[in-house]
Specification:
Length: 434
């Protein structure tokens, strides 16, 4: 073959075959884009704190931080003692302890839900009306004066008949209060509890649609979390995964699936002593939630522990070890969010999260740097792995476990560069053979 000549590539199929196949799969392509848009690329809080509607106050966020710091001072006053309680590697003791204290001083709560459901209970209508209006007023003020958590909102009562009207009214009062006080905050989050049928999700969508139209808001502006607390929300009577149908029923408004540890366990008949996030029943429910939510842009959250770190130092240490262990277990299973029910849970929440990201930081950064520079190493990573590595580093940055300077120093990537790997378009992955 002469210089500059190329061997002619031979094919057997006419171009029309490819065109026909593409035309036949057009509806599937559109369905994939609609149903599985991928992660939104926004920050996911590491926890949600629930505060009863009558207990929520203007200083709640700061008060929880101060109480958590006081617990550290009393029961683990230095890095060595805190690390010893939790079994942290000695190389992590100082950086984790320092970052936990800094977090509690700067941003003790990442996501707060004013609770009008189980944590509040039935009240006279006038009392709940006032509490809902008060919650709107305090949250508005918190965002205005810079004392708000990044995400805040309410958990209303569910869509079941006995409490449906009350839940709708509370939500209406709360949202109307926000609108009249200046508008809906960017960090607004709503939680719909005890969802059993997709039709209840549809009802929530219709409710929010009506509110948006009443105030000339952009359609779809208000999203909500779906709380999974019943066996029927996992498996329907026809054998299908109800939770997957719930995500679709939300019509793009669902932002999260939150596991309700105790309601779900009780629904299955699990004895009170064994109702915990690491029970096999809990693992099954969360695994189904995780698979149903994968690729949809809906995040999954673990539940809570009811063992509070209060009382003697011995009991506090036992509760801390339990909470820390459950949190680490959840992180390893890719449940990056959970519930915290007491200020004493904050030190171990952040200790577990920070240790998780810091101990894996250097290996993850090195792998991503090799991938980004196309440098050969002992692991052959693919686009999907690069997505996981960059997502891991971004979550560490968002919560305060990592600093952008150290991440950039090891990866050579800015935050924008990390985001480019973390949230690729579906077509990018497909073109790479994934």
């Amino acid at each position: 073959m002469g210089q500059g000549q190329q061997e002619r590539v031979r094919t057997s199929l006419a171009g029309a075959v490819s065109e026909e196949i593409s035309a036949s799969l057009g509806p599937v392509d559109a369905e994939l884009e609609r149903r599985y848009p991928g992660d939104p690329g926004t920050r996911q809080p590491v926890h949600t704190v629930y505060v009863p509607g009558d207990a929520f106050a203007a200083d709640t966020v700061r008060s929880w931080g101060d109480q958590a710091l006081a617990a550290l001072d009393e029961h683990a006053p230095d890095a060595a003692s805190f690390a010893a309680v939790l079994g942290l590697d000695e190389t992590l003791a100082e950086p984790v302890h320092a970052r936990v204290r800094a977090k509690l001083e700067r941003e003790p709560i990442e996501d707060l839900r004013v609770d009008f459901e189980d944590g509040y209970g039935p009240r006279p209508d006038a009392e709940e009306d006032e509490a809902a209006a008060r919650a709107a007023r305090l949250i508005t003020e918190a965002y205005e004066n810079g004392t708000a958590a990044p995400y805040m909102g309410i958990r209303m009562k569910c869509m079941e008949a006995p409490v449906r009207d009350r839940g709708i009214r509370t939500l209406d009062i709360f949202l109307t209060g926000l609108i009249e006080s200046g508008g809906l905050p960017a960090g607004l989050v709503l939680t719909l509890p005890k969802v059993t049928y997709p039709e209840q999700v549809t009802a929530m969508v219709r409710l929010l649609d009506a509110f948006e139209k009443a105030h000339a808001l952009e359609p779809g502006r208000i999203g909500f979390e779906i709380q999974i607390e019943t066996s029927q929300s996992i498996l329907a009577t026809d054998g299908t995964a109800t939770v997957a149908r719930m995500i679709q029923a939300a019509e793009g408004r669902a932002t999260g699936l939150h596991y309700g540890t105790f309601d779900y366990s009780a629904c299955l008949g699990v004895s009170a002593a064994y109702q915990a996030g690491d029970h096999p029943a809990a693992d099954h429910a969360k695994a189904v939630m995780q698979v149903a939510a994968a690729g949809t842009g809906v995040r999954v959250s673990d539940g809570s522990t009811n063992v509070l770190p209060v009382g003697t130092t011995e009991h506090v240490h036992d509760a801390w070890r339990l909470h820390h262990g459950l949190t680490r277990r959840a992180l390893a299973r890719a449940y990056y969010q959970g519930w915290d029910m007491h200020p004493g849970h904050l030190p171990t929440r952040y200790a577990a999260v920070f240790a998780f990201y810091r101990e894996g930081f250097e290996p993850a950064a090195a792998r991503l740097a090799r991938y980004a520079s196309r440098t050969a190493g002992d692991i052959m990573d693919e686009p999907a792995t690069a997505k996981a590595l960059s997502g891991y580093l971004l979550r560490g940055l968002d919560c305060g476990a990592l600093d952008i300077a150290e991440v950039t120093g090891l990866t050579g990537l800015s935050r924008t560069g990390l985001e480019g790997f973390a949230v690729p378009r579906r077509a990018d992955l497909t073109a790479s053979g994934q």
